[in-house]
Amino acid sequence: MHTKTLTQLAQGLQSGQFSSIELTKHFLDRIRKHSDLNAFITVTEELALQSALAADTRIANKQTQPLTGIPLAQKDIFCTLDVKTTCGSKMLDNFIAPYNATVVEKLNQAGAVMLGKLNMDEFAMGSSNETSYYGAVKNPWNTNTVPGGSSGGSGAAVAARLAPCATGTDTGGSIRQPAALCGITGLKPTYGRVSRYGMIAYASSLDQGGPMARSAEDAAILLQAMAGFDTKDSTSVDVPVPDYSAQLNNSLAGLKIGLPKEFFSEDLNSDMASTLQSAINEYRQLGAEIIEVSMPNLKLAIPSYYVIAPAECSANLSRFDGVRFGHRCESPVNLSDLYTRSRGEGFGKEVKRRILMGTYALSTGYYDAYYVKAQKIRRLISDDFKNALTQVDVIMGPVTPTTAFGIGEKIADPIEMYLSDIYTIAINLAGLPAISIPAGFINNLPVGLQIIGNYFTEEHLLNIAHQYQQVTDWHQQTPKGFE
Amino acid sequence: MSLSTNEVIQIAHLARLGIDPQDIDSYAKDLSGILDLMTQMSELKTSDVEPMAHPMDQVQRLRIDAVTESNNREKFMTIAPQVEDGLYLVPKVIE
Amino acid sequence: MEWETVIGLEIHAQLATQSKIFSGASTAYGAEPNTQACAVDLGLPGVLPVLNAKAVRMAVIFGMAIEAHIAPYSVFARKNYFYPDLPKGYQISQMDHPIVGKGHLDIEVDGETKRVGITRAHLEEDAGKSLHENFHGLSGIDLNRAGTPLLEIVSEPDMRSAKEAVAYMRKLHELVRYLGVCDGNMQEGSFRCDANVSVRPKGQKEFGTRAEIKNINSFKFVEKAINHEVERQIELIERGGKVVQETRLYDSVKDETRSMRSKEEANDYRYFPDPDLLPVVIDEAFKAQIKAELPELPHTKKQRFKTDYLLDEESATILTSSRPLADYFEATIKASNSEAKLCANWITGDLSAALNKAGLEITDSPVSYERFAGLLTRISDNTISGKIAKQVFEALWQSTSTADEIIEEKGLKQITDTGAIEAIIDKIIADNLGQVEQYRSGKDKVFAFFVGQVMKEMQGKASPAEVNKMLKEKLQG
Question: Structural domain tally of chain B?
Answer without folding.
Answer: 1
